[in-house]
Specification:
Layout: E1 3-4, H1 11-16, E2 23-24, E3 51-55, E4 61-66, H2 74-90, E5 95-99, H3 101-107
Parallel strand pairs: 4-5
Antiparallel strand pairs: 1-2, 3-4
């Protein structure tokens, strides 16, 4: 049995926007980040499921915490990215940090072995 690491997508949406999906033999899992890696700021407008936007207290740095490229709606996901970036710009962001720590841990839940 294989686990699909992608929320279900309607056949109509899949025809409109092809997706590359990873099939894995391990069950679906979620990662709980250590407290020091969990955001303490309130997400700004445009945040959605796997993409969360934050404005740092310096008033010039926006953060996109991207947990995955998988979403049940490609169009809604793309729109949330646009809305989040516009929100950060409106709040005065001139710098952007794209945080993919969670994305990395979801792809590699076990420690990588060096050879």
């Amino acid at each position: 049995m294989h686990a699909q690491q992608q929320p279900p997508v309607s056949p109509k949406a899949a025809m409109k926007q092809p997706l590359n999906v990873i099939l894995d033999t391990s069950p679906l899992s979620d990662v709980v980040l250590p407290p020091v890696l969990q955001p303490s700021l309130t997400p700004v407008n445009g945040s959605r499921t796997v993409a969360q936007f934050y404005m740092l207290k310096d008033g010039k740095t926006g953060v996109l915490a991207l947990g995955s490229f998988s979403d049940s709606s490609f169009d809604a996901f793309a729109l949330s990215l646009l809305t989040g970036l516009q929100s950060l710009k409106t709040l005065g962001a001139t710098q952007l940090v794209v945080d993919v720590v969670r994305l990395f841990f979801l792809q590699f839940p076990q420690p990588l072995k060096h050879v």
